[in-house]
Each structure stands twice: as structure tokens, then as C-alpha cells.
Known about the structure:
Layout: H1 9-19, E1 24-25, E2 29-30, E3 45-46, H2 49-57, E4 61-67, E5 70-75, H3 76-85, E6 89-90, H4 95-104, E7 111-114, H5 118-128, H6 133-146, E8 155-158, H7 162-177, H8 185-191
Parallel strand pairs: 1-6, 2-3, 7-8
Antiparallel strand pairs: 2-5, 4-5
Helix pairs in contact: 1-7
Amino acid sequence: MSSPSGAGKTTICQEILKKHKDYIYSISATTREKRKGEVHGRHYFFLSEEEFKRKIIKGEFVEWAWVFGQRYGTMKKFVIRAKKERKVALFVPDVQGGTAIKREYPDSVLIFILPPSLKELKRRLVHRGTEGKVELKRRLSTALKEMKFWSKYDYVVINEDINQTVKSVEDIIKSERLKSTRFDYSGWQITQG
């Protein structure tokens, strides 16, 4: 799931994870500083520049990118775990990361979350209170660029009402899990006494 900053992708994931204990959440790594209330290993893996570089060299990322002057990356271990355990894994990369994941794992499903309007996006970012005026302006400018990526995603959901948005994303996941290309025929044969 990708979106501009402030469109709600993290909140959507949190709500889905409350309802679906069998889903897993991919915790991204970053070199940025923790925000108030964030916990290492729960919100992000907060790494030093040196630690991040070591993980790049070791090939521990599916993808990584520079975002707002900091490194962010998706750890391979979450993809490997999800595939092995046949679980739904929720990822919240930026648009660069989302398209990189799709290239690496073509059967992944990309959902783009849009705010109802730019005015509402700005209101949400201001209300969040985590950015100063300069950072807020930069995030809004970046949001305009990121929104152009919506057509590269499999689905687009407008996050006007969090409950409806969560339901829409859950419906997408349910539909995707029922696709014939994901059906485990060998498992079906075994259960047919």
C-alpha cells in the first residue's frame, strides 16, 4: 500500500491488523530519527547510516530508496516469511518502493491510497504535527509527484472515511486470495478423502 504522506496508509494497516491476526506487517527500516511515540521494531527499524549500508551490501533489502533525505527500505525477511507461511503481508513503501516490489514480485498486489483532496491532505499533515513549515511544504510538493504513480498500481482507494477504506482494502485482499492463480490445487487434492 502506497500513498502520499498523510493519506492514511499506516492507519489503514493498523486497523486491518487489529481484525486479522493472521496477517503480518512488514516493518520498514529507515535512517530517519524517531518521531515522538515511535518504537524501534514496531513502527520502523531505526538504523544508523552505517547499519543501513551494511544491510544493503548483505542484500537484506527487497528495495531501498532515499526519501526526504533519509534511507527507507523493505526487508527481504518479511517477504520470505509471508511466502513460506502463505500469509498476507502488508507493506507500506513509498511509490519507488511499491513499484520496485512489483518488479521483484510480480504477483504482489499494489494498492494506492489517495486523500479525498489536496486540501484534506494538507489538513491531515498539519493536524499530525510532526513536520515544521518547511518540511510540510516539501511533503506536499512530493505528494503531488507521488500521486502521478496511481496508474502503476493495481487498485486505487480514496481514503475519505477510514472504516470504508479499511473495508475496501479488506475486500481487495479477499478477492485477490480467491484468484485461480493463487489456488493451491495440491492442497485441495489431499483434503478430498
